[in-house]
Amino acid sequence: MSGFKSFTKKVSHTAKAAAKKSSDIVEVTKLNMNIGSEEDKIQKKYTEIGKILYDLYVSGESTNEVIKTHCEVIKTHEENIKKMKQKILELKNIKVCPSCGTELEQEILFCSKCGAKQEVPETQAQAEETEKAENNCPECGTAFVDGALFCGKCGAKLQ
Description:
This protein is mainly α. It has helices at 2-58, 65-92, 124-134; strands spanning 94-96, 103-105. The protein has a two-stranded antiparallel sheet.
């Protein structure tokens, strides 16, 4: 029987050691997760600090030259994004209401969300007509070349 007791003690001891080891692994995993969580909080604070410094730069308050350089790079990226977003709107034939930010079709005269009057952008055909009108004689409407002083058809003074 003493062999059996010895065997039982060893099994019991091994089980306790395995349970302890398992418990330790779980605890280490929890600690690693907590460390990761704390590191994420630190990174968020770094980001928050960076945002504060950038806001100071935008408002014109003094900042370190290195920070200013980084902020100028951010500003360039923001301008690039703005241009790309505008290009996307143009490709979709959409505009953004300057009053409330709602996306609208180009031809809409009043915003459906806030009612603000919208500017209707000049179409290419309208732009060409305006250009033609600027290069037409005010008396007879005949087109003339830039730099002409008198109309070739009616002789009216152009400038």
